[in-house]
Structures are given as structure tokens and as C-alpha cells.
Design goal:
The protein has 164 residues and is of the alpha+beta class. The protein is built from four helices and eight strands.
Length: 164
């Protein structure tokens, strides 16, 4: 009997992030309440996150809200944003670095495998680095696994790749 499989990973779409960045930049330039303020957005390092700039913490929060709306409009999850870093205020300007969360660490991978083992005893799961390989003899089982993982409200993004 043939074995079918796919991998569960936690990644973001880099092309969509470029689009979100451009849309947010355009909206900041067009909004009347941001005229004459340092409000802006920049890439962090090698496009691994965003640097949000504003006149104060309220403006940084407003820009982050715009980023969330643009992500939702492009069917991307805002769970990819790591908002744990604090806002730095200096020289009449506030900045916050917002790196993107990517990759499944062991703890997240174990959450997924435990869920799947409990709900689908016939399906085999295997942690492989930053991915969880799901294997079954039935394509229907794999489709059910995908629906279950999508329905589960994890605090991280889940994607499916290498469907065979």
C-alpha cells in the first residue's frame, strides 16, 4: 500500500511580506494624521522583520495596527509578528523592532504531534528539525489532519508543504 505524507512547518510568505511592507508604506504616506511626523516603517536586517517608527508609542501602535490589517487583507496571519520587544523612545521618536517568527522549535512541534496522536491514532508523526512529517496510507486521513491543524488555534503560523 502506498504511503502519503506532508510536512507541517511554520513559515511566512516573503513575497507577501514585501507586498504588505509596500502597502503600509503607501498608507503611512497618504494618511493625514501622519503628515509631518516621523511615522514610518523599515526592514530589519535581511528582511527578517520590520522596524516601526512613530512620534510616540501610540503612533507605533497605530502603524502596527495598519500592518495587521494589511496582513489580514492579503490572507496572512498576524501571528508571524513577534511583538515581545518593547518600544524605545528617544529624541522625540519611538521605535519598535518586530522580527518575524519562523520555524517550529521542539516545544511547538511536540504540541502538534501530541494533538495528532490523540485525534488520529492511525497517522504517524515524526519531528524532523523544524518540521513535522505526517505519514498515512490514506489521503483522506491526511486531509482530516490538515483541517484539524488549521482549526486548532496555535500561537504560531502553520503551513503544509511537500504533499506526496
Amino acid at each position: 500500500m502506498a504511503q502519503f505524507s506532508f510536512d507541517i512547518v511554520s513559515e511566512y510568505d516573503k513575497a507577501e511580506m514585501n507586498n504588505v511592507f509596500a502597502q503600509v508604506e503607501r498608507e503611512i504616506g497618504n494618511r493625514y494624521d501622519f503628515k509631518g511626523t516621523p511615522a514610518g516603517i523599515e526592514w530589519l536586517g535581511d528582511k527578517k522583520g520590520l522596524k516601526i517608527i512613530g512620534a510616540g508609542d501610540w503612533q507605533v501602535e497605530a502603524v502596527i495596527d495598519i500592518v495587521r490589517k494589511k496582513l489580514a487583507a492579503r490572507d496572512q496571519s498576524s501571528k508571524v509578528l513577534d511583538l515581545s520587544k518593547s518600544i524605545n523612545e528617544s529624541n522625540m521618536k519611538a521605535t519598535q523592532e518586530v522580527p518575524f517568527i519562523e520555524g517550529l522549535d521542539q516545544e511547538k512541534a511536540k504540541k502538534i504531534t501530541k494533538l495528532l496522536r490523540d485525534k488520529f491514532p492511525k497517522v504517524k508523526t515524526q519531528i524532523q528539525g523544524e518540521a513535522v512529517r505526517v505519514t498515512s496510507g490514506s489521503k483522506d486521513d491526511l486531509q482530516a489532519v490538515m483541517q484539524t491543524v488549521r482549526a486548532q488555534d496555535f500561537d504560531f503560523v502553520t503551513n503544509f508543504i511537500n504533499y506526496r
